[in-house]
């Protein structure tokens, strides 16, 4: 542990660390270099400056070597991964087994022609094989692009094309919410009906045989995997080479293809989780995320195995049974949970059994990521899990070390409900007005960054950074624009109030969606809520609408709508209408797509809906909107 890190124990010190770090970001990151093993240490930490900087260029390393080979010495018999599912079936994989399996997977990929710099795509559920192949891709120095299960066929085809992927790795099928998802059939449909660069499909059969095998294209992994032990040397790659392509969630528009590097990214993530989690040798880390959301690979490929920590892979939907979350924690003695905000809302919606229906006494921290965690949900977790720290980390696919967070590892800072925590990396966070002028604490405005992290992504297929600069660096020259709206308090706590595009302008006021939602979210009848506005005729400002999903046991009624409005009014928000809906429109990563509500309210085109999770439910909502307009 670096000296600076050791000394931090309070908010004040944390701020000192971040300001020290931001004065000399290269020196800060130089101290973190040895979190991973290098074949050749980088001579220089930072080359150039953002937006066109390169971190650790010339350093040679391999993520797969860091995740498996280096643990053989002292952790070979330690469990690297537990796998479980909605039925609590069980597998355990040691680091020795992981090493063996990653080499087998890499051997087969190499036979299929995969080499350094190639892009390999993957569509899989959260199973150990996804870890084997994810790490195997990196072992060969190739680039990994993971796609969601359940994207529409045309979107899937576009992504394969955009990524330029000649090899696609899929599981025959996956299971979620009690349903079988026939992944290989999806791949067949996409490849048979659209033009893509895919030449080979490698199918992990999972013991099933009820899928088509196209002779010249498909290869069944279990048929060709070497029986005995094989060794594939890890390819030394430049730390600043592209390692991963992620597509953003599509919450605010068409998803953007973002790259992260092979090495700088791994350093940034390993520092991040050391600071956030302070994991010990016997801790167990469960990340609740689908494979297609960056959160899954961040934890299960680039951090937990690199740290030599035991992780839990969960296939399915944790809301499938009221006590499932608690039972998984109990079964594996989970100490650290990293979860999407939507999952936390699901647990709250299920009632206290979700966190007390099993022995959850091992649980030290639940870390939220994805959206601002509303105060009502935070309170609910505090009441139901009084001994668990509910932490937060605010980041984005483009900036994958936290912009602000509550770092439980280096200082257990007091949580302030509604805040995502404070900046603690060299990245500087500022709030600016429409003209880009910095605003003092307490004032609401746009969140912009002077970003100094090796986890600052670039855009895929954009060699001269043109699109990247236009997209992120042109709205406020000199700053990276997050697209988010919020404020900072006197102590440096950052409050993300929502997306700048979603800001609601009522009479003389600009309100972030989270402000209203946090209030309404504490009403006892409310499971979930999304706020959106609609301009009133004659330029008379906007009407504020609240879309509400009720908790089990509550029925929609005019009386309840009035009650919710009165509740909001008490906190100073005039809600013009409460619309009860079955489901909120969400992305595949579970984020509320308020822009779709707004578009429907304003009778505008919906724009990109490629990541909309449940189009049928949104159609219902749209019909309701037609009625209330
Ligand atoms: P797109 O960029 O395609 O519109 P997206 O912004 O949702 O989608 P992601 O990169 O997955 O794509 O999400 C980053 C965004 O998520 C941030 O800009 C912020 O709005 C929100 N976010 C993430 N974590 C938090 C958090 N802990 N608190 C508040 N907001 C968060
Ligand atoms: Mg975004």
From TrEMBL:
<dbReference type="InterPro" id="IPR042099">
    <property type="entry name" value="ANL_N_sf"/>
</dbReference>
<protein>
    <submittedName>
        <fullName>Acyl-CoA ligase (Acyl-CoA synthetase)</fullName>
        <ecNumber>6.2.1.1</ecNumber>
    </submittedName>
</protein>
<feature type="domain" description="Acetyl-coenzyme A synthetase N-terminal">
    <location>
        <begin position="16"/>
        <end position="67"/>
    </location>
</feature>
<dbReference type="GO" id="GO:0006085">
    <property type="term" value="P:acetyl-CoA biosynthetic process"/>
</dbReference>
<dbReference type="InterPro" id="IPR025110">
    <property type="entry name" value="AMP-bd_C"/>
</dbReference>
<dbReference type="Pfam" id="PF00501">
    <property type="entry name" value="AMP-binding"/>
</dbReference>
<dbReference type="GO" id="GO:0003987">
    <property type="term" value="F:acetate-CoA ligase activity"/>
</dbReference>
<dbReference type="InterPro" id="IPR020845">
    <property type="entry name" value="AMP-binding_CS"/>
</dbReference>
<feature type="domain" description="AMP-dependent synthetase/ligase">
    <location>
        <begin position="69"/>
        <end position="450"/>
    </location>
</feature>
<dbReference type="Pfam" id="PF16177">
    <property type="entry name" value="ACAS_N"/>
</dbReference>
<keyword id="KW-0436">Ligase</keyword>
<dbReference type="Pfam" id="PF13193">
    <property type="entry name" value="AMP-binding_C"/>
</dbReference>
<dbReference type="GO" id="GO:0005524">
    <property type="term" value="F:ATP binding"/>
</dbReference>
<comment type="similarity">
    <text>Belongs to the ATP-dependent AMP-binding enzyme family.</text>
</comment>
<dbReference type="InterPro" id="IPR045851">
    <property type="entry name" value="AMP-bd_C_sf"/>
</dbReference>
<feature type="domain" description="AMP-binding enzyme C-terminal">
    <location>
        <begin position="515"/>
        <end position="591"/>
    </location>
</feature>
<dbReference type="InterPro" id="IPR032387">
    <property type="entry name" value="ACAS_N"/>
</dbReference>
<dbReference type="InterPro" id="IPR000873">
    <property type="entry name" value="AMP-dep_synth/lig_dom"/>
</dbReference>
<keyword id="KW-0067">ATP-binding</keyword>
<keyword id="KW-0547">Nucleotide-binding</keyword>
